[in-house]
Design goal:
103 residues, mainly alpha, two-stranded parallel sheet, 4 helices, globular
């Protein structure tokens, strides 16, 4: 029973903390959207295939929503506040261009 409680506690902590990606990540000024995605996102968001980075809901399948999502985070996803300006635009364009939209 102790092992089960310990396992449940560890699982809950991992869920609360989110992925281990560094929230302090700052992309190089000339980093492409693909480079930023690979550095900041793939620890938790593994690409689905060579041509599909992720699946987006219709609700977030636009540039503004994607930027808001990665800058403010969510329950399990940390906020990446240092991805700003052109770097944010390049990342959002990459995600939008290389993702499927679910209906």
């Amino acid at each position: 029973m102790k092992k089960l409680n310990c396992a449940l506690t560890m699982s809950a902590l991992l869920i609360l903390v989110g992925c281990g990606a560094s929230k302090d990540y700052t992309p190089p000024a000339d980093a492409s959207g693909e480079t930023i995605f690979s550095s900041a996102c793939t620890e938790c968001h593994k690409p689905i295939s060579a041509n599909v980075a992720m699946v987006l809901s219709e609700k977030v399948a636009n540039k503004e929503a994607i930027i808001k999502k990665f800058q403010s985070g969510s329950m399990r996803m940390p906020a990446f506040k240092n991805i700003q300006g052109e770097a944010a635009n390049r990342l959002a364009e990459y995600v939008l261009t290389n993702s499927q939209v679910s209906k």
